[in-house]
Amino acid sequence: MKQSLTTAGGATRFVLIIDEFDRPQGRASALFADTIKTLSDHDVPATIVLVGVADSVSELMREHASVERALVQVPMPRMSDSELAQIVEGGLTRVSMSITERALRHITDLSQGLPHYTHLLGLNAGLEANEHRRTEVIPHDVDVAIKRAVEKAQESIKQAHYDATVSPRRDNLFTHVLLACALTKPDARGSFSAAEIRDQIRRITKKDYDIPAFSQHLNDFCDQKRGPILHRMGSPRRYRFRFINPLMQPYVIMHGLSKEIISNSEIR
């Protein structure tokens, strides 16, 4: 690759974009790291853009820590509520529609910074308002949009949620524990502790559960038997958890709303 880029480049600087860089494993990952380091060491006129999901470049480049000095990290944080609101208002304005402040806040709260759900909820809320010949989207339209969004969610998301919560026992806590995880406010790295989840479980179930009552549920969510749907970090007694797929968290909340396990007031 080094020789090809140098020869073909000339006065032109190439930009190579490699998507889903978090997926290569083993030898493939090592070869990528070696290639990047070689290109950097020989000042090849090319820029390589690595796109992947991880907490840091270190996690993406496990095979070659020294390659970090040749990279510039560009984190992609979740969108702010104001940015999400612009998406909804901009789309509705194009079709001469508007939205109440309460309905708009409900959409941004549910989106959890992810525009995927902002578009999905905004579209279905607008369609619901239009079916009733209204030009303004109201909270009821968002409630209907939530049920439609749950139905139209990616099949992989729905299947993962089902696998994580299915149980022959009607009194099982899997659905409630997973919902508590989704409702718990995470830290800057998107993780939360069992102690933080406990408060949400008590709110959802109206029962005084303590950590031993649901700790195995959390462990199961990190295991193949129910996913894994969560990733566990840290050491015993100091474990922290986070959703493996960011799209799962808003889906779990919307599923809880659609099944009336929680109310709108509990997601703020």
Number of helices: 12
* Oligomeric assembly: single chain
Number of domains: 3
| Mean pLDDT, all residues | 88
CATH class of the largest domain: Mainly Alpha
> Which structural class fits the helix and strand makeup?
mainly alpha
Gross morphology is flat
| CATH-derived architecture of the largest domain | Orthogonal Bundle
Strand order of the largest sheet: 1-2
Radius of gyration: 22 Å
What is the straight-line distance between the termini? 51 Å
The residue ranges in which pLDDT falls below 50 over 5 or more consecutive positions are none
Element order: H for helix, E for strand: HEHEHHEHHEHHHHHEEH
Instruction: Give the helix level as a range of percent.
Output: 40-55%
CATH H-level superfamily of the largest domain: Winged helix-like DNA-binding domain superfamily/Winged helix DNA-binding domain
What is the percentage of strand-forming residues?
5-15%
Question: How many E-type strands?
Answer: 6
Please outline the major beta sheet.
2 strands, parallel
- In the CATH hierarchy, the third-tier topology of the largest domain is known as Arc Repressor Mutant, subunit A
